[in-house]
Design brief:
alpha/beta, Rossmann fold, seven-stranded mixed β-sheet, six-stranded mixed β-sheet, 15 helices, 23 strands, 18% strand
């Protein structure tokens, strides 16, 4: 679990104060609620009245620049820590507990989980996709927040709640005041940072609008990881003045990684003509079904996490390598390390899992390797121990390509491999296994597992900045989401009066240098980003491992 920040400095005094630095080392005015100035490198404190002046918390002459200055200070100055979350709760309706984990299998008649009831209906159009009939479900307003509701309901934050109420009433100055405090109260929460940025954008007037779709339900950790990168890009864009004097507002939608809900949400977002672009979705299955709706509305989508090779469209972009690239990289690694026979475990009902399985097998066989079996992880009769026993002597390695809903089954295979094999077989896997769940539930059984991921934090300037801002080591989902948002905002800013059409056209021309991204240049060719990602390995004592765990991830190949 992420450690709570030390908030003692922010609670000793209730009145804020303004700091501008000193004449030899000045900085933009920022408002501080703690006793020490939050601007990086500034050593001023509340009591030094010769350098800072007290102000009333009810002051109405707040300027936007100081407000944005504090956001920049937060980005650069907060201390580092480590975070990894794991969510334990009863399974929602429509899911089953599988090896201790709630799982949703992408079946034609899946109903998903829809909290609450709603009379807010939109036009629902059945969609046939990859031979799977998908019927959208009724829209629930609880799925989308325009800074008017809490999506991550696990933590209480009275300042956040007060800020949301003020925002709903159009009292943006009061919303800003409360949301600033909310950010200080929970420095790892990206939702409150985005709401603060949105309040500032509305205070400025006529904000530019984009939307992000993440799986708040079912994959809360991944959702927060994505939102951290989005919040970073939004903060920087707004602090720099936005585009044409307009700041950006980010609406947040929760699709729970459920394709039917994703399609309904996509229809709703597409019907809001103020939305200029979409960041998301998380899972390839959700992105694939939602893409159909965005295409009809001429609305561009950039996914930081969807890698399936079936995702192709003039309106689809991504900031991660496709499964074709990842499958090839893993096949080459297997070949180079002397692996000749592999058993592949995957979920044929998942667009991502099946895509990676196909790509790996094609490239591995092309290199002379043999696939000794392609085994369905989602089979209700699947038994990891029986599978490993049946494969004894027939394979040299195991390839684990679960989707996010079958990772627990893959971890069960790793355990069986450790317990039953005379000599533990090498294992390779897809990026769905790059998570705290793998480390926590797998323990020593997943040691030496090699995973292909799009990005890994080393000494990139963005990684160092983001680690400080969010009080923990960020991963590839945060970096790819930052890059996706940077690209979308660049496309928006390229036109004096941006439209959906201009944004889509400008995305084709985006060319970001490494200083504008998480570390690598970014441009698109037919919607794809160049680059093939990196390989990491789970190892005991790896640098940057979660504090409460024995093992972590280490970089083994660029």
């Amino acid at each position: 679990m992420i450690e709570s920040p030390n908030n003692s400095d922010t609670t000793r005094n209730s009145a804020p104060w303004i700091c501008q630095g000193i004449s030899a080392n000045s900085h933009p005015e920022i408002e501080n609620w703690g006793d020490s100035c939050m601007f990086p490198g500034c050593k001023n404190n509340r009591e030094d009245l010769s350098k800072a002046k007290s102000i009333s918390p009810s002051s109405n002459d707040r300027k936007l620049k100081p407000i944005l200055g504090i956001a920049l200070a937060i980005v650069a100055s907060l201390g580092s820590g480590l975070y990894l979350w794991q969510k334990f709760k009863p399974c929602p309706e429509g899911q089953e507990k599988l090896n201790g984990t709630c799982s949703v299998i992408d079946k034609p008649e899946s109903q998903g989980s829809a909290p609450g009831n709603s009379t807010d209906q939109i036009n629902l159009v059945p969609r046939t996709n990859n031979n799977t009939l998908t019927t959208p479900i009724p829209f629930n307003p609880e799925w989308i927040s325009q800074s008017d509701r809490v999506l991550f309901k696990g933590n209480s934050n009275k300042y956040r709640d007060n800020g949301i109420e003020a925002f709903k009433q159009g009292n943006y100055a009061v919303a800003i005041k409360n949301l600033e405090k909310a950010v200080f109260s929970d420095r790892s929460d990206p939702e409150v940072q985005i709401y603060l940025n949105n309040a500032q954008a509305s205070f400025q007037g006529s904000p530019l609008k984009i939307a992000v779709v993440v799986p708040v339900e079912n994959k809360e950790t991944s959702a927060k990881e994505m939102l951290r990168g989005i919040a970073d890009a939004q903060t920087q864009f707004n602090y720099a003045g936005g585009a044409g004097g307009k700041l950006v507002q980010v609406d947040i939608a929760n699709d729970g990684n459920e394709p039917q809900r994703a399609q309904t949400i996509a229809q709703k977002l597409a019907s809001d003509l103020n939305i200029l672009g979409i960041i998301g979705h998380n899972s390839s299955s959700a992105s694939e079904i939602a893409l159909f709706e965005y295409e009809k509305a001429n609305l561009a989508i950039i996914s930081p996490t969807s890698t399936s090779t079936s995702l192709k469209s003039n309106y689809f972009y991504r900031t991660v390598p496709s499964d074709e690239i990842t499958g090839k990289k893993l096949a080459q690694y297997a070949d180079q390390t002397g692996i000749n026979r592999v058993a592949v475990f995957y979920n044929p009902h998942s667009s991502y899992s099946k895509s990676l399985q196909n790509a790996f097998e094609a490239h591995f066989q092309k290199l002379g390797g043999k696939v000794s079996g392609s085994i369905d992880l989602s089979d209700s009769n699947f038994d990891p121990r029986q599978q490993i026993q049946a494969l004894q002597g027939r394979i040299d390695a195991i390839a684990l390509f679960p989707n996010t809903n079958t990772t627990s089954v893959a971890i069960g295979i790793a355990r069986a491999n450790t317990e039953l094999s005379a000599q533990k077989l090498p294992m390779i896997g897809g990026d769905a296994l790059y998570s705290s769940q793998t480390l926590n539930n797998g323990g020593s059984a997943v040691d030496d597992l090699v995973i292909a991921v799009p990005w890994f934090a080393t000494n990139q300037p963005y990684a160092e900045q983001a680690n400080q801002r969010w009080m923990g080591t960020v991963n590839w989902r945060t970096a790819a989401s930052y890059d996706a948002t940077q690209a979308l905002l660049k496309a928006i800013a390229a036109s004096p009066n941006p439209t959906r059409s201009s944004v889509e056209q400008n995305l084709r021309l985006v060319n970001l240098v490494s200083s504008e991204t998480s570390g690598e240049p970014l441009s698109f060719t037919n919607g794809e980003r160049s680059g093939d990602g990196v390989l990491v390995q789970i190892a005991p004592g790896a640098l940057g491992k979660p504090r409460e765990m024995i093992n972590g991830f280490k970089l083994i190949e660029h």
